[in-house]
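>> Question from a student workshop board

For tomorrow's exercise we were told to take the sequence and the ligand below, predict the bound structure, and bring the output to class. My setup keeps failing. Could a helper post the expected result so I can at least see what it should look like? The ligand is copper (II) ion.
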Amino acid sequence: MAFSNVHRLLLPIAFLSSISLSLAATVTYDFEIGWVTANPDGKADRPVIGINGQWPVPAMEVTLGDRVIVNVLNSLGNQSTSLHFHGLFMNGSTHMDGPVQVSQCPIAPGSRFTYDFVVNQPGTYWYHSHNKGQYPDGLRGAFIVHDPENPYKDQFDEEVVITVSDWYHDEMPGLITFFMSKENPGGAEPVPQSALFNDTKELKVAFQPGKTYFVRMVNIGAFAGQHVWFEGHNMTIVEVDGVYTHPAEASLIYLSAAQRCSFLITAKNETGANYPFVASMDTTLFDSFPEDLDYNVTGWLVYDGALPLPEAALLDEFDVFDDMTLQPFDDEPLFGEPDQTVTLSVIMANLNDGGNYAFFDNITYTAAKVPTLYTVLSSGDLATNPEVYGEYTHPFVLEKDQIVDIVVNNIDPGRHPFHLHGHNFQALWRSEEEAGLFEESNVTSASFPAIPMRRDTLVLYPDGNIVLRFKADNPGVWLFHCHIEWHVISGLAATFVEAPLALQQSLGGKIPQDHLDNCAALSIPTTGNAAANTADLLDLSGQPSPPKPLPEGFTARGIVALTFSIVTGLLGVGVIVWYGLAGDEGRPGAQGVGVGGEKGEKGDETYTCSRTAPVARHLERTTGRLIDGTTMNSSQNIMRVLYPKRTL
Ligand SMILES: [Cu+2]
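>> Workshop helper replied:
Here is what the output should look like for this input. Compare the format with yours to find the bug.
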């Protein structure tokens, strides 16, 4: 990063509660966001979103306690933008959190917007655009909070930051248009072309014999989870998502989109060889396996630059470290029984525009006319009534300091990394794959760990369930959403409105003028309910809404039941068909698993696809066959993945 763009201002501050003199800094970043051309995988020049004329964008680095000011100028010309600082609680500054139409308006082309917040959490974070699926076009980077009191400070010599990401050759707007179109009724997410370490395929990390490194790894990708391992070196995990953990040994970790993991790696004592390290995409997420998919990226621990960089050995299987076994370093015990439990089921289904949408229960997220925070601030006593936020922001109003459980049931055969803004959650439970609904399991609170792992993004397994718990001690408007960017676009999000009356007291009349100016520039209203109605806050007519549901009287709730039963039933049939047709997996000619059709027998395209597509997707993930009837060829090297199983 150019020196001119960041200024550190050291301010001595005497704290009344302390006799010592502390140093808190104000770190100022001036970010002009604009288009540049890049070619990180060496295969395709493309426009990417850079900062101050550069891409990759800079890592932001601050120290615990610093105030951070980010002055943004949007010079994209053709797109609005925003910045979210992933994992930071934004306590007292929910209006700086970044999601568009949640806590701010988009930053209009040509406009300025300032983020201003204090960082009171140590660890590994990242920042990214939170506007219209924009960040995979390049606007994402690491955000590191250094900690003079890092409990592991005496156990390492140097810090290393490594981002891992998937990479697309095409720009998001076009990909999104196709993804949500009726030409893609099964909701197949665009598959990336490449994997990158630090936005390159040629990352070399200098290692000196005998030293120990604190490696901060961040998955800044859009879609793919990544399996990561280092040849010849073990990882000692010490932090996930900004939470220090007791040390845990791992040979291979899985990092979903948005997750972070820090680990200590001790260098060898000799310099006779260099060692590859690898990130390998979770290809089970993909609905197809395009020819141009290069799903591995290799980097190297370089002990001697004169020696060769060996090729990475391929693994037969991934033995994934189970993050549910981690314990936070502070040993924070399980919170008490919940005051409120929010149960959400993940469903993919079609609406009558033919597009494939993602639902929590019967709601696919659709942004309100007024940013939800601004509705909080302009709805008086009615701010505690979820109706004012509109049906399609899927709002839940929380009271200050409530204990809240989120139960997520996955009625989809995909893996989903769920992220909560404004909090870490205690991860109380994660079922194995195919476990069905949490309510129908025999798991009780007695099964929850006494000291649960905490993080801000947790992976939910296919057709499984998770239970998260957090304390509503941070007044704000916070999204809960899948961090696969495609699923944010298709609506897999809900809104927590936490302590709205407290928010009115702390932020009422204090939204900065530059924030409001961006709303004005884009003609976005800043008062009233989700429909921008200021006269009658309970009249939501005109609120933004998704396309109409399917015809023939089927409700989304009905689809839940039907999909679930049909998945179960057809899986059985499908497996029989598969055995009958296929012989051994991958045999040429064993094509067309029978339920992968895109047009239904009833002649009603949307009606039928909503039911067959999940089944087909499930089958192809189970059998290795693709939805277009082709099979993965043997050179594509389908690896066996061992995900941790948890049983009572
Ligand atoms: Cu998802």
